[in-house]
Specification:
Helix content: 25-40%
CATH topology: Rossmann fold
Largest sheet: 6 strands, mixed
Oligomer: single chain
CATH class: Alpha Beta
CATH architecture: 3-Layer(aba) Sandwich
Shape: globular
Distance between the termini: 14 Å
Order of helices and strands: EHEEHEHEE
Mean pLDDT: 75
Number of helices: 3
């Protein structure tokens, strides 16, 4: 499987630590894992088997315009999907949930065929999973 975790940053905080542990465990089982962050703020170390990318060189997410980040996310995903598709995109933090939720609305509005639609599932208040249907 090809899995992307989409989180705010790689600061030393709970969601980030749990995400890295989960990503590393999934990678140990032979899956390709990418951690995409909104900002380039990295305090945590990630195993070399995990691909780490960011959307903005700005270090503080609170100063970012989420509309611009949404466009950056769509461009990033479009470029990635031209090479291979993600089986799942897992988003945490309110910022990344808003960005991925916007993507689902765009896909529904342009009437993508059922095989290519990303479905959205809420895993509690702070988590969203996008997966292929």
């Amino acid at each position: 499987m090809n899995i992307c975790f989409f989180i705010r940053d790689l600061k030393i905080e709970g969601v980030q630590v749990v995400t890295i542990r989960l990503a590393e465990e999934i990678a140990k089982h032979g899956h390709h894992v990418t951690i995409l962050t909104v900002t380039d703020e990295h305090e945590l170390t990630v195993a070399s088997s995990i691909n780490v990318e960011f959307l903005s060189k700005q270090e503080n997410v609170h100063g970012l315009n989420l509309k611009n980040v949404h466009h950056q996310f769509i461009a990033w995903l479009t470029e990635k999907e031209s090479h291979s598709t993600f089986d799942a995109i897992i988003a945490s933090h309110s910022e990344t949930i808003k960005i991925t939720a916007g993507l689902v609305l765009v896909l529904l509005l342009i009437s993508i065929t059922p095989m290519n639609i990303l479905t959205i599932i809420n895993l509690g208040i702070e988590n969203t999973v996008l997966g292929r249907s």
